[in-house]
Amino acid sequence: MTSALIADGLTKRYGRRTALKDCTLDIPAGHVTGLVGPNGAGKSTLLQLACGLLDPTAGRIEVLGRRPVSGSPKVGFVAQDTPVYAGLTVADHLRMGAHLNPTWDSALAEQRIAQVGLEPALKAGKLSGGQRAQLALTIAAAKRPDLLLLDEPVAALDPLARRNFLQGLMELTAEQGMSVVMSSHLVADLERVCDYLIVLVDSRVQVAGEVEDLLAGHHRLVGQRCDTTDLGAGRFLVDQSHTDVQSTLVVRSTAPIDDPSWQVDGLNLEDIVLAYMGGAVGKQPDAVLRGNR
Ligand SMILES: Nc1ncnc2c1ncn2[C@@H]1O[C@H](COP(=O)(O)OP(=O)(O)OP(=O)(O)O)[C@@H](O)[C@H]1O
């Protein structure tokens, strides 16, 4: 199997509101994928379509080569509010997980609970946000899924708890070789753990690809004020700002830019994400938009 998730023209509408529009993706298996975008961009909707909690309005989605089915043992899902049963203990959660999941790995669950310092007899309602997130991750991972979907798993965590959570996630992916798709607003965190990135803005995928390729393929160009409508073949404008004398462009390019009229610098992942989130893509003609995908 080579794809963890394929979407083709995937669209989800709630009544008249479009949450996801014409989304086309092919996420290779074995990656930790970051899903980033502003509030309301459609991230949760995409994850819920991927785990079978929602049905598409139009288009197609395939997860691990099949149409998503809610409750599949091959797919683990941790929802945005890391739901746990307040009246049940940590140990009760593990017993329930074992009862409900044919592929449950008790050793993994118990080892993780001990490792992250969760007291088995403690009721989940008494756990902190970070501990709840660790419990939810443990339950999802102990299913030994091939794909783990995490909806803003670290949003409520302090920096130390976040680091511990992400460290735990990296260990799990290294040990189990599973694919992960994780939404977050914290791009610096995603940069540490993700090797694939999707930027979703206004219900549309603006860019998706291997982090390494995105870093290599995006450039900041600074030079004399210019007309940006013609950047040349294979170059696509992502964002632009101008003063009276100077233009600063963020450009995606299929080849290195070797042009003495520009000062060309690399970008980090956060720069790239911000360029797409606040950038010129949505204001460009269709031809340029298509080129960006
Ligand atoms: N059950 C629903 N009924 C109606 N509209 C919805 C529903 N769920 C989501 N939406 C709308 O769909 C759009 C996408 O929402 P979604 O929750 O997928 O965004 P998101 O990127 O996850 O946002 P956030 O970063 O704030 O969690 C939003 O405009 C939202 O208001």
From TrEMBL:
<dbReference type="InterPro" id="IPR003593">
    <property type="entry name" value="AAA+_ATPase"/>
</dbReference>
<keyword id="KW-0547">Nucleotide-binding</keyword>
<keyword id="KW-0067">ATP-binding</keyword>
<protein>
    <submittedName>
        <fullName>ABC transporter ATP-binding protein</fullName>
    </submittedName>
</protein>
<feature type="domain" description="ABC transporter">
    <location>
        <begin position="5"/>
        <end position="227"/>
    </location>
</feature>
<dbReference type="Pfam" id="PF00005">
    <property type="entry name" value="ABC_tran"/>
</dbReference>
<dbReference type="InterPro" id="IPR051782">
    <property type="entry name" value="ABC_Transporter_VariousFunc"/>
</dbReference>
<dbReference type="InterPro" id="IPR027417">
    <property type="entry name" value="P-loop_NTPase"/>
</dbReference>
<dbReference type="InterPro" id="IPR003439">
    <property type="entry name" value="ABC_transporter-like_ATP-bd"/>
</dbReference>
<dbReference type="GO" id="GO:0016887">
    <property type="term" value="F:ATP hydrolysis activity"/>
</dbReference>
<dbReference type="GO" id="GO:0005524">
    <property type="term" value="F:ATP binding"/>
</dbReference>
<keyword id="KW-0813">Transport</keyword>
